[in-house]
Specification:
Length: about 240
């Protein structure tokens, strides 16, 4: 398989975790209410842990060698501020698609970075693809619930929407592979920008939703999500 074909396969597999998460949310049927509620919060926490592992193990370490301190800091902070601006805009417009917007806002830059990293032969690209899939699964799950509650769209239409969005991954991955590979500094800036945005999303959207009063299990999902990323990092290192 050629390198560009591998990029398409990896990014598409990561993207398909979004409709898979939506489908799991659709078929979810647990007769015990407290267990269903705790499972949903655990899935949210797991997604947050996977996102943190992508930041700590791939996006930041792989980008710092190509940048000076000022540029690296500026890109990271800019990513957080951009996601904050998006959050404010969604809130003011009254839209109920904050989970969906956050999912796409980190998926596309990550796919760009993955394509460029793969062109350089970085082992971190495989880990990043796996972490993208891990984070897209719970994000698809949560975004489906959010849209199903607040829009008139049917389940089939929502899952079809998520399936269509999954193809943004291969498009962004090919763009990174074909056009950004000769510019490692630009790739590093994109990765740090995405890292800053992801960190903002984790603490703004995912962490607050993961908590349940008088329940201590769901936050463990964040530990498990990060641990899974750690295992992948050590296997590929």
């Amino acid at each position: 398989m050629d390198a560009w074909q591998t990029v398409i396969v990896l990014t598409l597999m990561a993207g398909m975790a979004m409709p898979l998460g939506a489908w799991l949310a659709r078929v979810e049927c647990i007769p015990i209410d407290w267990l269903e509620n705790e499972l949903r919060h655990g899935i949210i926490a797991f997604g947050g842990g996977a996102l943190l592992s992508a930041v700590a193990l791939v996006l930041v370490p792989d980008s710092l060698p190509a940048l000076d301190i000022a540029t690296a800091t500026a890109c990271f902070v800019a990513g957080g501020m951009a996601f904050m601006a998006l959050d404010i805009a969604l809130n003011r417009s009254g839209t109920s698609a904050s989970q969906l917007a956050a999912m796409l806002a980190d998926f596309v830059p990550e796919a760009l970075a993955l394509g460029a990293a793969f062109a350089h032969g970085s082992s971190g690209s495989l880990l990043l693809a796996g972490l993208m899939a891990l984070q897209n699964l719970p994000e698809g799950f949560n975004a489906y619930h959010e849209l199903r509650r607040s829009t008139p769209y049917t389940s089939r239409r929502l899952i079809g929407l998520f399936f269509a969005m999954a193809w943004l991954g291969p498009l962004a991955g090919l763009g990174g592979f074909l056009w950004l590979a000769p510019y490692p500094t630009a790739v590093a800036m994109i990765m740090l920008f995405a890292a800053g945005g992801i960190l903002y999303s984790v603490f703004q959207d995912l962490a607050p939703q993961a908590r349940l009063e008088r329940h201590w299990g769901p936050p463990l999902g964040a530990v498990l999500g990060f641990a899974l990323g750690l295992v992948g990092h050590m296997l590929l290192d």
